[in-house]
Specification:
- The structure is a single chain.
- The chain folds into two domains: 2-221, Rossmann fold; 225-287, Alpha-Beta Plaits (2-Layer Sandwich).
- Helix content is 34%, strand content 30%.
- The chain contains ten helices and 14 strands.
- The protein has a six-stranded mixed sheet with strand order 6-7-8-3-9-10, with helices on both faces. Strands 2-1-4-5 form a four-stranded antiparallel sheet, with helices on one face. The chain has a four-stranded antiparallel sheet with strand order 12-13-11-14, with helices on one face.
- Helix 3 (93-103) packs across helix 4.
- The chain binds adenosine-5'-triphosphate and magnesium ion.
- The site of magnesium ion has 4 residues, from helix 1.
């Protein structure tokens, strides 16, 4: 079963093609990272999923229902935390959440879940404060609670931790991970790539409105054409062989990190070059790139294709 399906989706704003030929599926139960630089089209894609904007071409379905044709069903299935802080300043946190529950037709018994959300999102002290009087980070927590009041099966979070302090970010991720473990599908956009790496099991990278990478996270990292060779050398006073210079991405004394192309730069050749100049190798290991390194490579490559 699939949570969200994007079929041949295009979105144009006048002459700008904000999304081009988007075709991918968010598997049900996945923790899906939708990543990309500013302006890549992430929020536009989310708005189309939530029925807040119409695709210029193509279709989006949520749990088997077309977003445009079955708007009510898809809204019920979805909880969306928007990137923009939109709120009604005249209601308190609790009033806002009750209103939202009413909008989704939740019975008064849902109020105990609202209390639970208020507690989990650390809003107890502010539950009766007007939204207008909350700090930015607190408003964002309310938006998260608001997206969850009707217990949606699919939760989309568009940069939920922008402007949120470290402590709450940790709490929020813990909370979202629990929602995921309970069986919900989570779609997350974030610029905190280390956090996306530890949370997500599927990754799509958008750039200039196109999907430029899409895979299970482990495969995306393992199949990336680069890997890193980390060396500790006994190199005191000795210059490194000049052949290695183009490969070095980090040097801290005799600790060296080299970036190698998996199919071209051979580890053996690096070791031979060091032996030729009598530099002993005290320790070595290889590692796959992290998500941030893969992200930077892929977006840089696709920028070259677009602009060069
Ligand atoms: N309502 C709109 N009218 C015109 N252009 C728009 C509109 N909404 C978005 N865009 C443009 O579409 C492109 C994609 O914007 P979008 O907000 O989807 O990017 P994003 O990936 O969410 O970026 P960010 O990381 O900054 O949130 C941008 O060039 C943006 O200026
Ligand atoms: Mg955005």
């Amino acid at each position: 079963m699939t949570a969200i399906v994007f079929s041949n989706v295009y979105k144009r704003f006048g002459r700008l093609e904000a999304l081009s030929n988007i075709n991918f599926t968010v598997p049900e139960g996945s923790f899906f990272g939708l990543l990309g630089p500013n302006g890549a089209g992430k929020s536009t894609l989310i708005n189309l999923s939530a029925g807040l904007a119409r695709a210029s071409q193509g279709s989006v379905s949520v749990l088997g229902n077309d977003v445009q044709r079955d708007y009510r069903k898809t809204r019920q299935a979805l909880g969306v935390v928007p990137q923009e802080l939109v709120y009604d300043p005249f209601f308190s946190v609790r009033e806002m959440l009750r209103l939202q529950a009413g909008y989704f037709g939740c019975p008064p018994s849902s109020h105990s879940y609202i209390d639970e959300l208020i507690e989990r999102l650390d809003l107890i002290d502010k539950a009766d404060t007007n939204l207008h009087d909350l700090s930015g980070g607190m408003k964002r927590r309310v938006l998260v609670a608001q997206a969850l009041v009707h217990r949606p099966q699919v939760v989309i979070l568009d940069e939920p931790t922008a402007g949120v302090d470290v402590e709450l970010r940790k709490n929020l991720w813990q909370f979202v991970s629990e929602l995921h473990r309970e069986g919900r599908t989570i779609v997350l956009t974030t610029h905190y790539l280390e956090e996306a790496e530890s949370l997500c099991d599927q990754i799509a990278i958008l750039n200039h409105g196109r999907v430029v990478a899409m895979d299970e996270k482990e495969r995306l990292l393992a199949r990336h054409p680069h890997q890193f060779l980390c060396l500790t050398l006994g190199c005191e006073g000795k210059p490194l062989p000049s052949a290695l210079a183009p490969l070095v991405v980090k040097q801290d004394g005799c600790e060296l990190t080299l970036k190698l192309k998996r199919d071209q730069d051979k580890i053996g050749a690096v070791l031979d070059a060091l032996r030729d100049v009598d530099i002993p190798i005290l320790e070595l290991h290889t590692r796959d790139p992290g998500l941030e390194e893969v992200f930077i490579d892929i977006t840089a490559q696709t920028n070259e294709v677009t602009h060069g």
